[in-house]
Design goal:
By secondary structure, the chain is of the alpha+beta class. Helix content is 40%, strand content 24%. The protein has five domains: 100 residues, Rossmann fold (3-Layer(aba) Sandwich), CATH 3.40.50; 69 residues, Dna Ligase, domain 1 (2-Layer Sandwich), CATH 3.30.1490; 128 residues, ATP-grasp fold, B domain (D-amino Acid Aminotransferase, Chain A, domain 1, 2-Layer Sandwich), CATH 3.30.470.20; 114 residues, ATP-grasp fold, B domain (D-amino Acid Aminotransferase, Chain A, domain 1), CATH 3.30.470.20; 35 residues. The chain is built from 17 helices and 22 strands. The protein has an eight-stranded antiparallel sheet with strand order 13-12-9-10-11-14-21-19, with helices on both faces. Helix 4 packs antiparallel against helix 5.
C-alpha cells in the first residue's frame, strides 16, 4: 500500500492532495521552484525538495527532476494534480519504469484521449455521439474542402490542444486560411504540435462535463455532471452542479454515455468526459480530461465523495466500492475561481505581495487556497489564488451564499477577480440559470461596467480601515517613543546626579 506520495505540483491543488493524504496517514512530499520556496504547500508537506528555477519548463515540467526528488525522498507514488505533467503519457511511463506508482490512468488512456483526433475516432467506434468534423487536416486546400462539406461556422482546433489554446472560430469563408494559420502557430508554440482538425460549431453551446471513476477491474461509475458554461476565452470562470439545463432523463442518458466513453479506453482513476450540449439538449462528446479537474470540489460536496482518496485507493489496486445506485446528488454547489488579475484592465495578471487577506467562513463554505499575508504571487504560473466553493440545499440559496462569501473575501496588495465574480452572481441570466458559453460576452455591459458608486463605497471602507490602522500604529509608536525618552532623561539625571539640585 502507498506510504509516501510526492505531489508533482504546486499551490492550492498540492495542498488539497496533501490534506487527503494526511487523513489517510500517508506521508507527503512537496517539490518547489525558486519562486515557491515559501509557498504554503512547501510548509504543509512532511518533506520538500527544491527542483530548480522559477520557470515551469525548468522545474515543474522537468520529468527527470521530479523522478529524482521521488527517489531521494523514498516516495512510492506520485500524484500529478492538474496541469504541468498530469496528462503527460511519457511521465506516466517513466514512473512505471522507475517502479513508482502513478496516481492516474494508464499512459495508453492518456495518449488516446490526449490526442483530440484519436479521441474522436475512438468515440465514434464506441458509438458515442461526436460533433460533425474532420480528421487531420493536411493542408489549406484540404481544410477548404472539409469546411465546405461540414458547412460554416466551424471551429479550427489543435489536436494536442487544451485550455482554449489553438482554437479559432470561423464564420466567414474569407477568414478560413488566416484562422488555420493562427491556430497552427498558437498550437505549435503551446504544445510543440501544430496538427489541427475541424469541427462544426454548435450555436448556443453549453459546456457540461461528467465526473467518472473507474478501477483496474473494469468497474466504472459516474458522479453526475458539472455545468461549466461561464467561460472567458474558453477558460472556465464559474462552475455549478447540478446543471440548471439538465432533465433527469438527459442526465441519466449522458451519464451512461460518459461511462461507456471511459470504458472504451479501459480507463482507471478519476477523469472527466466533456460534452457540448445545444439548446435542444442534443449532446456531443467534446474531449476527455485524464486527470482531476479544477472544479472537482463541487462534485465532492454534492455527492459526498473524496475524489483524491478514491484516486489513491484505485492506484493501490483496490476495487471500487461505490456502486452507481449508491451515488446521488444532494443540494447545490457553486465554485468561483479567484484569480490575481485585473478585470478592468482586460484581465491582465496582477502578481505581487499579498498585504492583507480575509478568507470567507461560515456554513456551507469551502476555501481551497494557498496564499497568505506577505506571500508574493509569482509571475511564472497561472494566477489562480484560490477556489471558493459554497453548498446549500437549493440553487437560490447557493447563489445567496456565494454572494455573501464573495462579499466577505478581502485581498489587498494585488488586483483580483472577486468583484467581477460577485457581479456574475447578480446577473439575471445566471440567476435564472438561462445561460451558455456566450454568457460573459452577452452580459459584458453589466459585468465590465458596474455601478461605480457601489464599488467606491467598498473601496472607501477598506481604505478607511487601513488608515485607521496606520493612525493607531503611529500613535502607539509615538507613545513608546515618548516613554523611552522620559526613561532616558530619568536615567540620565541619575547618572549626572541632577536630583541633588
Amino acid at each position: 500500500m502507498i506510504k509516501k506520495v510526492l505531489i508533482a505540483n504546486r499551490g492550492e491543488i498540492a495542498l488539497r492532495v496533501m490534506r487527503s493524504c494526511r487523513e489517510m496517514g500517508i506521508t507527503t512530499v512537496a517539490v518547489f521552484s525558486e519562486s515557491d520556496r515559501t509557498s504554503m504547500h512547501v510548509r504543509y508537506a512532511d518533506e520538500a525538495y527544491f527542483i530548480g528555477p522559477s520557470p515551469s519548463a525548468e522545474s515543474y515540467l522537468m520529468i527527470a527532476k521530479i523522478i529524482n526528488a521521488a527517489r531521494q525522498s523514498g516516495a512510492d507514488a506520485i500524484h500529478p494534480g492538474y496541469g504541468f505533467l498530469s496528462e503527460n503519457a511519457e511521465f506516466a511511463d517513466r514512473c512505471q519504469k522507475e517502479g513508482i506508482i502513478f496516481i492516474g490512468p494508464s499512459s495508453y488512456a492518456i495518449k488516446t484521449m490526449g490526442d483530440k483526433i484519436t479521441a474522436r475516432k475512438t468515440m465514434v467506434d464506441a458509438g458515442i455521439p461526436v460533433v460533425p468534423g474532420s480528421g487531420v487536416i493536411s493542408d489549406e486546400k484540404d481544410a477548404l474542402a472539409k469546411i465546405k462539406e461540414i458547412g460554416l461556422p466551424v471551429m479550427v482546433k489543435a489536436s494536442a490542444g487544451g485550455g482554449g489554446k489553438g482554437m479559432r472560430l470561423v464564420n466567414k469563408e474569407k477568414d478560413i486560411v488566416s484562422s488555420i494559420r493562427a491556430a497552427q502557430s498558437e498550437a505549435r508554440a503551446a504544445f510543440g504540435d501544430d496538427t489541427i482538425y475541424i469541427e462544426k460549431y454548435i450555436k448556443s453551446p453549453h459546456h457540461i462535463e461528467f465526473q467518472i471513476l473507474g478501477d483496474k477491474y473494469g468497474n466504472m461509475i459516474h458522479l453526475f455532471e458539472r455545468e461549466c458554461s461561464v467561460q472567458r476565452r474558453h477558460q472556465k470562470v464559474v462552475e455549478e452542479t447540478p446543471s440548471p439545463l439538465m432533465t433527469p432523463e438527459i442526465r441519466k442518458e449522458m451519464g451512461e454515455c460518459a461511462v461507456a466513453a471511459a470504458k472504451a479506453v479501459d480507463y482507471s482513476g478519476a477523469g472527466t468526459i466533456e460534452f457540448i450540449v445545444d439548446d435542444n439538449l442534443n449532446y456531443y462528446f467534446l474531449e476527455m480530461n485524464t486527470r482531476l479537474q479544477v472544479e472537482h470540489p463541487i462534485t465532492e460536496r454534492v455527492v459526498g465523495v473524496d475524489l483524491v482518496k478514491q484516486q489513491i485507493n484505485i492506484a493501490n489496486g483496490l476495487e471500487l466500492e461505490l456502486k452507481q445506485e449508491d451515488i446521488c446528488q444532494y443540494g447545490h454547489a457553486i465554485e468561483c475561481r479567484i484569480y490575481a488579475e485585473d478585470p478592468e484592465n482586460n484581465f491582465m495578471p496582477s502578481p505581487g505581495v499579498i498585504k492583507h487577506i480575509t478568507e470567507p467562513l461560515g456554513l456551507g463554505v469551502r476555501h481551497d487556497g494557498y496564499v497568505y499575508e506577505g506571500f508574493e504571487i509569482p509571475i511564472h504560473y497561472d494566477p489562480l489564488i484560490s477556489k471558493l466553493v459554497v453548498w446549500a440545499k437549493t440553487r437560490e440559496e447557493a447563489i445567496a451564499r456565494m454572494k455573501r462569501a464573495l462579499y466577505a473575501y478581502k485581498i489587498t496588495g494585488v488586483k483580483t477577480s472577486i468583484s467581477f465574480l460577485n457581479r456574475i452572481m447578480q446577473t439575471p441570466d445566471f440567476v435564472k440559470g438561462k445561460y451558455n458559453t456566450h454568457f460573459i460576452e452577452k452580459n459584458s455591459e453589466f459585468l465590465m461596467f458596474p455601478d461605480k458608486h457601489e464599488t467606491k463605497i467598498e473601496d472607501v471602507a477598506i481604505i478607511a480601515v487601513y488608515v485607521d490602522y496606520l493612525d493607531r500604529l503611529n500613535n502607539l509608536q509615538m507613545e513608546v517613543h515618548s516613554k523611552n525618552e522620559k526613561k532616558n532623561w530619568k536615567n540620565c539625571g541619575r547618572r549626572l546626579n541632577f536630583n541633588r539640585f
